[in-house]
From TrEMBL:
It holds the Pfam family START. CDD domains: START_ArGLABRA2_like. Residues 1-68 are annotated as: Disordered. Keywords: DNA-binding, Homeobox, Nucleus, Transcription, Transcription regulation. This is START domain-containing protein. It comes from Hibiscus sabdariffa (roselle).
Length: 611
């Protein structure tokens, strides 16, 4: 293993995980290039990158096709040509969406049904049609057939039908050969220790929104404002936006949407914010994702400045490019559902509370000054946000599949930014990832991966070394949610490397994100030196359940996504040596096998101890 570690450092350019001391390097973004689609493989020792759609294993390609990338200009043109007419249509659509959201947020059974003990609230499709759909006598007959066991095709946006037009007939949805988009709908309610006005600002400010929801929103753009505020607040504001929504894996396609966002104050202390897709305003032959009226109803809790949020997520999506491993949790609505949106708001609130706190819980008597504590939190925020962006399937991330002869797993990789080391030539960075199923619960896997004491059981560069959590800052009510400094020693007196790590878990999933930081650099950060110039190559894990919680009596296992970001001096945008591809496969394969072996052994030992 020691020999492989040395080869790994030389091949990928980890360079003992040192980032540079005197002048911490900065990341210099550059646009990654790929060869034309007709580029062929070179010699057996060289891999020529292809476009993602033509790369090996591209059957489940998650990159957005080029013809979907210019729809923002199409939408703007649709709004500008016949401006008054189209603006009136957007306003009408926003008002109708607000009415539907309020009803969806306030109605109970039979419209909403809870699956299992503690499971999600999901939509009763038939009841939804009766409440909101345009149902004629024929559709009523079809619904009655479904209630006695016959199949039903639910109405869909597909075909660019106007969802809100009451005169829209049901018949087009049943035409021969029509394949409707998959419908996901969920609802969740939670109390958040933040005022409704602040939450509304996070949602309506196009710069704050992707920051608060960085684990969901890859990028967001405000295209224009249709209606301005009526009282100086966001009350009455209707704006047109575009955004991409993601999970942190290229195996789940990103969801690209153009929508109107309408905000309204319903009463004193009560607000509503609704999104609704606008694709029906202009003809477009293929739509892969649409938001039906989705958003939240926010009620102020009297006396303590907190809010009760009811979130409704109701979308249509084309799931044919979805990787089979993730199909159960995505198609159920869990992966992009209401619970995840509310969890993101809650996490951001807890982060703000932590950043303003004046106390610093630490381990082993380590004292972190307040400025150092603030620096760690700022650096960890950047670390985690970069991780979410780098490993998503958003349009800008051009993923390629590893050739099948290099490994058995579905491995994806791409070039990252150019990395500058002082006094050395510029290096590319390589980003690579895969996902595997581990038959243990999410909490078991999360606890193992976040624990500094067990890092040497899976981290190839920490193997057989001493690892521990040196210090931490708790960032949530759950003490496992924390920013940590993990120390790796080759002997009790010699520090090899320090890792900055953030771990976080909630009912929507878990993640552990880390990056190596040289000891002297970490000392400077803790002692108040501005961390903005420190470059971080975010690596880590995302842990999701392998099926939606609350469905069925079978034990829920985990889907583990492993993601690494390394400097690479041997590759360029034109070619990658086969030895590098082999190393990518070995890093992912050996790490996944080590994690599986360790958690299964711990699980067996625990069960034996109970007996």
């Amino acid at each position: 293993m020691v020999g492989f570690q040395a080869a790994l450092r030389d091949e990928i350019g980890v360079q003992d995980n040192r980032l540079g001391l005197d002048q911490p390097p900065e990341m210099n973004p550059q646009q990654d290039d790929v060869l034309p689609d007709n580029e062929e493989y070179g010699s057996p020792s060289v891999y020529h990158p292809q476009s993602p759609q033509n790369s090996p294993g591209s059957e489940s390609s998650t990159n957005v096709k080029p013809d979907n990338m210019n729809r923002a200009s199409d939408l703007l043109m649709a709004v500008s040509i016949g401006a008054d007419l189209n603006k009136n249509k957007i306003i009408e659509q926003g008002i109708r969406a607000m009415e539907e959201l309020i009803k969806m947020a306030t109605l109970g059974e039979p419209l909403w049904q809870r699956i299992g003990n503690g499971g999600m609230e999901t939509l009763n499709g038939i009841q939804y049609l009766r409440e909101f759909g345009c149902i004629d006598a024929t559709m009523e007959d079809i619904i009655r057939m479904v209630e006695v066991g016959e199949p039903l095709l639910f109405p869909s946006f597909d075909g660019n039908d106007n969802y809100f037009a009451p005169e829209t007939p049901a018949a087009p949805f049943l035409k021969s050969g029509f394949e409707p988009l998959h419908i996901e709908a969920s609802r969740d309610v939670r109390f958040i220790n933040m005022s409704p006005v602040n939450i509304v600002e996070w949602l309506m400010d196009s710069k704050q929104w992707p920051v608060v929801f960085s684990s969901i929103v890859s990028r967001a753009t405000l295209l224009g404002v249709i209606l301005d505020s009526v009282d100086g607040s966001y009350n009455g504001v209707l704006q047109v936006m575009t955004a991409e929504f993601h999970q942190s894996t290229p195996l789940i396609p990103a969801r690209h949407s153009y929508f109107a966002r309408y905000c309204k104050r319903l009463a004193f202390g009560t607000w509503a914010v609704v999104d609704v897709s606008l694709e029906n305003l202009f003809p477009y032959p293929q739509v892969q994702f649409r938001r039906r009226p989705s958003g939240c109803l926010i009620h102020e809790v009297p006396g303590n400045g907190s809010s009760r949020i009811t979130w409704v997520e109701h979308i249509e999506v084309d799931n044919k490019f979805l990787h089979p491993l993730f199909r159960p949790i995505v198609s159920s609505g869990f992966a992009f559902g209401a619970k995840r949106w509310i969890a993101a708001i809650y996490r951001h609130c807890r982060w703000l509370v932590t950043s303003m706190a004046r106390t610093t819980p630490t381990d082993a008597g380590v004292l972190i000054p307040q400025t150092g504590r603030d620096n760690l939190l700022k650096l960890a925020e950047r670390l985690t946000r970069n991780f979410f962006v780098n490993f998503s399937s958003c349009t800008e991330n051009m993923w390629m599949g590893l050739p099948l002869n290099f490994g058995h797993e579905d491995i994806r990789f791409r070039f990252g930014n150019t990395l500058a080391f002082p006094g050395k030539p510029l290096n590319n960075t390589l980003i690579f990832t895969t996902s595997v199923r581990i038959p243990v619960p999410v909490n078991v896997l999360f606890d193992f991966l976040r624990d500094g004491r067990t890092r040497n059981k899976w981290d190839m560069l920490s193997s057989e070394l001493l690892t521990r959590e040196l210090a931490y800052v708790i960032t949530g009510e759950d003490p496992r949610n924390r920013v940590s400094i993990i120390q790796v020693n080759s002997s009790p007196s010699k520090i090899e490397v320090l890792y900055l790590q953030e771990s976080y878990t909630d009912e929507s999933g878990s993640y552990i994100v880390y990056a190596p930081v040289e000891a002297l650099t970490m000392s400077m950060i803790i002692n108040g030196v501005n961390p903005n110039s420190v470059s971080l190559l975010s690596s880590g894990f995302v842990v999701l359940p392998d099926k939606p919680p609350g469905q069925g009596n079978e034990p829920v296992g985990s889907i583990l996504t492993l993601s690494f970001h390394c400097a690479d001096s041997s590759s360029t945008n034109e070619f990658i040596p086969a030895s590098t591809l082999k190393t990518i496969d070995e890093i992912l394969g050996i790490t996944a096998a080590a994690i599986r072996k360790a958690v299964m052994a711990n699980r067996s030992g625990t069960q034996s101890g109970r007996r």
